[in-house]
Amino acid sequence: MSEFTVIDPATARPITTLQRAEVADVDAAVARAVAAQRGWAALAPGARADALRAFARVVEEHVEELAQLEVRNSGHPVGSARWEAGHVAQVLNYYSGAPERLMGAQIPVPGGLDVTFHEPYGVVGIIVPWNFPMTIASWGFAPALAAGNAVVLKPAELTPLTAVRLGELALEAGLPEGLFQVVVGSGTVVGQRFVSHPDVRKVVFTGSTEVGVSVAAGCAQLLKPVTLELGGKSANVVFEDADLVAAAAAVPGSVFDNAGQDCCARSRLLVQRSVYDRFLELLEPAVRDWRVGDPASEATDMGPLISAGHRDSVAAYLDGVDVAFRGSAPTGDGFWFAPAVVLAEPGDRVAREEIFGPVVAVLPFDDEADAIRLANDTVYGLAGSIWTENLGRAVRVSRAVKSGVLSVNSHSSVRYWTPFGGMKASGLGRELGPDAAEHFTETKNVFFATDRA
Ligand code: NAP
Ligand code: MG
User: Fold this and answer.
1) Domain 235-415 superfamily per CATH
2) Does the beta carbon of 354 lie inside 6 Å of ligand 1?
3) Model pTM score
4) Which residue minimizes the CA distance to atom 37 of ligand 1?
């Protein structure tokens, strides 16, 4: 096993060192998961529901601890980190309702009775990125467990600490040994082994489109189903008839939240040409007032970027572009980056590529058709927002934009009880919402003959 160091992105100082799992460790974890899953799936649905509710309660009791870990490991502002930890408990509570509701169908057939069952896959492998370590993990493990599966979870090496703690809390809550295991290690070793291991029967991957495509290709070799939550370049479309003051005030949160390291970041701001200048005037003070600083402070809106390497990659997007204005950022050893508003053309790199940092590309459009064309002028299709006071336009545009998660006069994307996921290069399949537990099952159809000679 090799060792690696976990870094606090706000100070660039080490927090702790952990061991990387090797293939043999993954195989041992999967073997334990296979054994645990048999007993778990055999439990009465109500007993599985109770066990998940107990897990939710223990997470609730540790919200502050988990939040503080995320502040240190990920640099998330403490208010956001508390929300994220509380969200994990809510997701567990929501899917604890699923075991007793995984209802099949009874289909009319001649000569007998036909019934469908939702059978768990067995062991599910979940690979998560560093941007929202806890919440994204829970979107996989809570419904997967609820449906009767065991879970092996690989956090990103940059941000493993809350996942490791959640694995301990599951045991504290009384979940059986081996049912929910967190395996720390690199993507190319641990993540890749989830893909190639024959006993991992489904993979959930959240991360970059490039790695997601390779994960899907690997899963195809074993005909293994895969859910992919990938990148985005979402549009925030502001029409001339919008409440411009409210729309401008909402922009920083829509793209600079989590320092822009959000797959749903509205990183393209499309503004109708007739109100373009006025809108930029309204936007400037909102960006200036966006508070970038110590994530441990309650007053902070945005912390640092996740790593020095990532900061270099974000900064490179500002080379040679037309920066309209920037917010502020602390100096010091953390991976700080001041938010930037860039005036762009549709073909510019800054308007096309996912930057995953606090950079927004502003582009003007002429009319509704132009807005739709520009919004769809991307390989991605994850999220997006439409600002207008015209109801018909809101309906037309929201139906025409090819994205999985849209909001009108708001930037909300994530509610655990509504479906989440992307179109085009943003992904495959959906997480959250009322159907997520079913996505961790295979349908079995059984015909019982009743007309026997
Ligand atoms: P990434 O490089 O794709 O990594 C994501 C996860 O996959 C990490 O745990 C990584 O492990 C692992 N991994 C890397 N190579 C692998 C391989 N060959 N096989 C299996 N697993 C592998 O992405 P990232 O740099 O962490 O995160 C940023 C990207 O994620 C952005 O593009 C962002 O849009 C996307 N994202 C999408 C969503 C969504 O819901 N759609 C949410 C969050 C992030 P290690 O890094 O530990 O080696
Ligand atoms: Mg990576």
Assistant:
1) Aldehyde Dehydrogenase; Chain A, domain 2 (3.40.309.10)
2) yes
3) 0.97
4) 230
